[in-house]
Amino acid sequence: MLEVNSLTVDYLTRGGTIRAVDNVSFSLEKGETLGLAGESGSGKSTLGLSMIRLIPPPGRIVKGEIRIDEVNIVDLPESKMRVLRGRKVAYIFQDPMTSLNPVKKIGAHFVELIRTHEPDTKKEDALERTKKVLGLLGILPERMNDYPHQFSGGMRQRIMIGLGITLNPNLVIADEPTTALDVIVQAKILDLLENLRRVYGMALILISHDLSIILERCDRIIVLYAGNMVEYASSAELHKNPIHPYTQGLLRSIPNIELSDQRLSAIPGSPPNMLNPPKGCRFSPRCRHAEEKCSLMEPSLIDVGNNHFVKCFAADNEGAAVE
Amino acid sequence: MSEIVRVENLVKYFPVQKSLLEQFFARKVDYVRAVDHVTFSIKRGEIFTLAGESGCGKTTTARVLIRLLQPTSGRIFFNDQDITQLKGERLRLLRRKMQMIFQDPYASLNPRMRIGDSIGHPLEIYGIARGGEKVKKVLEVLGKVGLTPPEQFINLYPLNLSGGQRQRVALARSIILEPEFMVADEPVSMIDVSLRTTIIELMLNFRKELGITYLFVTHDLAVAKYISDRIAIMYLGRIIELTDKKTLFNEPLHPYTQALLSAIPVPDPERRRKMIELKGEVPSAIHVPSGCRFHTRCPYAEKTCEEREPDLVPVTPDHLVACHLTRKK
Amino acid sequence: MKEENETRQSILARLIPGFVSLTKHGPSGWMVIIGLAIVVVIVVMTAIAPWVAPHDPIKSNVGPLASPPSWQFPMGTTALGQDMLSRILFGGSTMLQVSAISVLICFVIGVPLGLFSAYVGGNLDKTFSLIIDAVYAFPGLVIAIAIAAVLGPGVVNMALSIAVVYIPSYFRIIRSQVLSIKELTYVEAAKSIGAKWHSILFKYIFPNVVPSIVTVATVNFADAVLTAAGLTFIGLGVSVSIPDWGYDLTKGRELLSNGGWWVITFPGVMIILLALGFTFIGEGLSELLNPKLQR
Question: What pairing do the DSSP bridges indicate for beta strands A33-37 and A203-208?
């Protein structure tokens, strides 16, 4: 239901142009979970925000198309886009602490949301729907009259998720939904997202810097580095057969509690300066397999079979170029 | 003297701030019981980890131990010397042997000091080196933390560096005095995943090279498993389990530890472990539950658990657990 | 020794490219440049006045009484026949001196007071804050007038009366900055490496407070200019024998009723320009000096 083709997003800052998302293409079916994995500067948040056309200025989509249920939303007028937001696409923001209105009751958050998008809804019906959603979230209906500060961080994140799915959207984007939360709460939230996804049948994009969560919970994964999609495959395939050196490096740097005597290694160097990124392949300065051509030309996306795509010259051996 | 640090019945309570009106009506003061009778010791040369979720008191314990906060009661020993009441100049001189690395690399460096000056400042404080001699030592330590070429980094300001690099600067500042003991408070949780190992490896190297003992504080048990020798799990201000790393992960005895371990994500799409469900949420540290503070969420809670608080006792000589039920076994 | 030379050199070497780099910082950089240009021009103008002014500014009857701008007297003459152009060239000196001295006094008293009060905290801080807030609660101009009336005319006295009004602002801003910086991690880190209290205050806290001091200082300058003009306007300023824009403002008002616009306008414009110059510097600097965390 979601199709992204050659999406490119730039930020035009005073210091120069930052290409936050560079030529990214992927698709997502109903009921599927896609994970966007990457570290600081990877562009994963920008990519997520593009799906709902909420890229903050000075950012702009400069190329490509985003098709949600066949409709290209890149050039859609803002008035039509506003209708889609919440109804077709929902975005769950990173920080539940500041995303809720502290002077509004929780119930009011939901009711206002429903009645803004479906103005003919009667107040009683809106309240009924709110109670239903709160039930799915594991929140007692009496708490509808409480204010955000009366809830814990984990609960507030659930409320955010609830607000996201209330209008039954086809696509939900969750941006670092568990970052500020403890591991037990984290697991509960991710379980909740999965349950809701099964109940409502929506497509889910999960954005996180925590590769463990992405590997555990997503069907397909995009690994992003400096705005580029460097690897795109199913989670099983990515885990068994990571081809891009960055993906390999990432996997080697995550501790796995089920293994003893792990030897972890770091990726040398630092994340790239996005105002002045490296020439050619942006990962080349840190890549142990880098050759001369890597710093001269950008590699193209190569299909290595098994629905597995890699943007690296090293993958050239068997695959055929897709771009 | 194989014990470098010992903490006995450490308590730290924070009085709850009340509004003027509340103060008027309230009879007593409420306290946040951040650290509630904690006892443990750290062996020389080991990496001892305090682990737990946010609010469990691990960071406060570490800060009190290193005397950045005053304990409400209890005693702290360093090299068999009682440092609990140490003040002023004598406390300051202790700092030379006990250092700390902080969680946020973006906040722990003075934005208006060049990193060479930040790193070299400890040398000036204790009169170890000045001028050219100081610069030499700073360059040397910059090389040790992998910021090479050191001459290029010494005059930079923190804003020119990435998070990972800043944390290395913080590390450099702490080890330039070659301390005996170091507290690391979530040193890698705000750094990119692919760079974390660099910092961890550096810390491990310094242990080998300089014999530094570490108190590591973290909520990330996967990292704890990688780096620690012994781990203490904290819940609501108390240690509820303490043992060596292998035993903790293979045979966790406390129900909270078991639940915690079951919730940790594993980077493997094939393995879906079964998470142990805990009911409710972490209670407030102001109104700590009676008896065993975990009983409100424990799947095995019995009547005793509500009435009496279990002590942290050895189930085997090296495995301490605070739970009535394990003692029965 | 070598290191000290390096530091000195690096300050100078930093200043010049610093100015140039101002242009690259967008509108705030340009504000600072324009503001600086205005102030510098006025200062230079005042400084070279003795050599450049066509007439003695206080000598009366150098030209026809109260005559409008002409080729001979480009800014006209006053009711006493003094040349306005010369008076404009000389007249900024009082204002500049008064504002400079008042900023100096405020700095010397207000900043340390704010620093120590916030750092020490406790009852000392509460006491100082109470006193300062009491002063702050009074309308500024009223205090300035009261003190000026008591002390009498003169540059230093005017500066003092303005300073008293402004010290609370310095105190409050410095104090709030120190209070928040005190809690930051890098100050805690300084404590953890064993730094003594004066090291912490002067190496870690003070340098991070400087940006806000600069901002207050420039606003102080601008306000001092206007207050000095006001004091002179109501007769509490300097003596008649010194050419002063504020004084001309007063005198110009009398002429205005007779249709004479030039005696009040030119000094008025100069006062506004000078205040504007300082304000521009302050506004531009406050935007530039906020260190942006890069993530």
Answer: parallel
Span B273-323, pLDDT tens digits: 778 888 877 888 888 898 999 999 998 888 888 999 999 999 999 999 999
Residues of C in contact with B96 (CB under 8 A): 194
What CATH number does the domain containing A219 carry?
3.40.50.300
C-alpha A284: how far from chain center: 25
> Do B203 and B187 contact (CB within 8 A), yes or no?
yes
Residues listed for chain C: 295
- How is domain B3-97+179-328 classified at the CATH fold level? Rossmann fold (3.40.50)
The answer for A 16-55 residues in CB contact with C (under 8 A) is 40
Domain presence at residue A14: yes
- Chosen CATH of C2-288 out of 1.25.40.10, 3.40.50.720, 1.10.3720.10, 1.10.10.10: 1.10.3720.10
Distance from CA of A298 to the nearest CA of C (A): 26
Sheet holding B313-316, edge to edge: B98-101, B181-185, B213-218, B47-51, B230-235, B238-244, B319-321, B313-316
Whole-number Å distance between alpha carbons of C30 and C22: 7
- Rg of the Cα trace of chain C? 23
Whether the complex's predicted ipTM surpasses the cut of 0.90: no
Give bridge partners of residue B3 from the DSSP assignment.
B43
pLDDT recorded at residue A205? 94
Write out chain A residues lying below 8 Å of C26, CB-based.
14
User: Taking the model in full, what pTM does it have?
Assistant: 0.82
Nearest to B170 by CA among B134, B194, B206: B206
CB count in 10 Å sphere of residue A142: 9
Interface probe, candidates A11, A12, A14, A42, chain C, greatest C C-beta count within 10 A: A14
**Across the B/C interface, how many CB contacts are shorter than 8 Å?**
72
Both tokens assigned to B258: 């078991």
